[in-house]
């Protein structure tokens, strides 16, 4: 049965029945004209929105419906994590091709709600619309943060250290592996980073709460872009130590086998959804956060500089220009 066979009202009813019970914060939940939420006492509201579009952000050949739902929420949780906000609620707008199977829509919603439940996020409402174009999953999320404990892109100071969570390059290599029909057993870590990324929610919140960072951004558009964004907002340059970069091992192997420079591929590759921070040099608060957040792999990769025009990757004792970041309106290679 397809979306158009069932009709929008009946589909909405089926989807509402699948949503987990909302938290106590939700006074009027999904199914009414709008949701009513109780704000978290003494905290500030943090909101963001992001859409994933078939053919631009994913292809149905490589993504199961549950992966699409997972990723649509994860990319938003990552933006809240970069602000050090704890996620609380989500709005889901589904723009569905009329011929899409209802069971796929249900799986998509299940993929999203499985992730939502893990972070205590209530789906408080949304919308479904039919389209003659590609599938679009548009998600808005809200969360909260204690007063003045949020992180922005603009707080980095020259001399601060550059730290990143996790590994980089995996999601981009994962996309290449999925798109290359001739590839042998692809690396499961890279594939997972591309299809079902994990937002660094606990780490972002802990870094803000513990005042361990002065600035943060998530690496949705790659490390080079993240460095440039914080640099521009903070008025800093940056020096990256290529030998310190935590490139995902499967990605490095993939690029080496294809004669691609793994350093530059990892620096420019997007969608890793790791966090990038400016950390004051003494770093005592960072050590405290790392002790208290379970297993946050973090790596110091460089230093913020005084001159905003100095953006360099230091490699074998030589300076190379930091490549440009990923550009959304450019065609992908
Ligand atoms: Mg972001």
Order of helices and strands: HHEEEHEHEEEHHHEHEHHEHEEE
CATH class bucket of the largest domain: Alpha Beta
Number of domains: 2
Name the average pLDDT: 94
Number of helices: 11
Strand arrangement across the biggest beta sheet:
8-10-7-11-9-12-13
Biggest sheet character: 7 strands, mixed
The CATH homologous superfamily of the largest domain is called: PurM-like C-terminal domain
CATH topology of the largest domain, by name, is Phosphoribosyl-aminoimidazole Synthetase, Chain A, domain 2
User: How many whole angstroms does the radius of gyration measure?
Assistant: 21 Å
What characteristic shape results from the CA principal axes? globular
Give the proportion of residues in helices: 25-40%
Give the distinct bound molecules: magnesium ion
User: What is the straight-line distance between the termini?
Assistant: 37 Å
Proportion of β residues?
25-35%
In total, the number of strands is 13
User: Would you identify the regions where 5 or more consecutive residues have pLDDT less than 50?
Assistant: none
Q: What's the CATH architecture name of the largest domain?
A: Alpha-Beta Complex
Question: How does the helix and strand content classify structurally?
Answer: alpha+beta
How are the SSEs placed, and which strands pair?
Elements: H1 3-6, H2 8-18, E1 26-28, E2 36-37, E3 43-53, H3 65-82, E4 86-97, H4 102-118, E5 122-131, E6 136-146, E7 161-165, H5 170-179, H6 188-195, H7 201-209, E8 215-218, H8 223-234, E9 237-241, H9 249-257, H10 262-268, E10 275-279, H11 284-292, E11 298-305, E12 311-315, E13 318-321
Parallel strand pairs: 4-5, 9-12
Antiparallel strand pairs: 1-2, 3-6, 4-6, 7-10, 7-11, 8-10, 9-11, 12-13
Helix pairs in contact: 2-4, 3-4, 3-7, 5-6, 5-9, 9-10
This protein binds magnesium ion.
Residues 79, 82, 218, 220 line the site of magnesium ion.
